[in-house]
Design goal:
Blueprint (H helix, E strand, L loop, with lengths): L1 H10 L23 H15 L3 H11 L7 H7 L13 H4 L11 H12 L6 H17 L11 E3 L5 E4 L7 E3 L12
Antiparallel strand pairs: 1-2, 2-3
The structure holds magnesium ion.
Length: 185
Amino acid sequence: MLGAIAGDVIGSVYEGALPGPEDFPLFHASCFPTDDSVLTIAVAEAILDGEPYLTAIRRWALRHPDAGYGVMFHRWMVGDVTGPYNSYGNGSAMRVSPAAWIHDTLEATLAEAQRTSEVTHDHPEGIRGAQAVAGRSSSRAPAAAARACAGWSRTGSATTRRCRSSRCGATRSSTRPARARCRRR
Ligand SMILES: [Mg+2]
């Protein structure tokens, strides 16, 4: 999810442009979050609050109406289109990443990805696009994100601890431990 948002912000100033040099600044003053970030957060909030994807996505889109939506999505979000509109664009894939964090199995992740997609992108290719991204994310970081870490090791810093789980890499501040979550368990 963080990668999706970071990539959206980094790529915001290059969208629609010809390929540039491989060596370019990732973040600079002109970068900004686009519809990809807005709708990724909408999906995450729907998951966390147990809210239908349709209402969370529409609410977040209306909260940020100029984030760069496609024409069909814009018509859907303002209510001109009722129900999904058979899209097979990339909009279902760009917002799906939170779905990969809440399930331990690929099967459950793919089912969740379908639910995030079919409120707008109900074409089989739209659903497959979301499942491809979520499935890939799931195989690399199974949902263990929601579980508390078993233990933390000291680092060189007086206030930073590092997760003991193999390859997790998570760190936490000793002053805000409740915010830390293991990424591997
Ligand atoms: Mg965008």
